[in-house]
Write a structure and sequence with these properties.
single chain, alpha/beta, Rossmann fold, 3-stranded parallel β-sheet
Length: about 45
């Protein structure tokens, strides 16, 4: 299982340093799409 960090570049950079896979978003619509994709994939223990 993996850890996913979703947010702006500053937020995700910190988590990337500890090994989390980062997903940078620019707007609310993109956030919804990424969260749906991550939840459906079942590869991530923590989002």
């Amino acid at each position: 299982m993996k850890i996913a960090a979703v947010g702006d570049s500053i937020f995700t950079s910190g988590f990337a340093l500890i090994g989390a896979e980062s997903f940078e978003i620019k707007n609310e619509e993109e956030l919804n799409q990424i969260l749906k994709k991550l939840i459906e994939s079942s590869n991530y223990a923590v989002i």
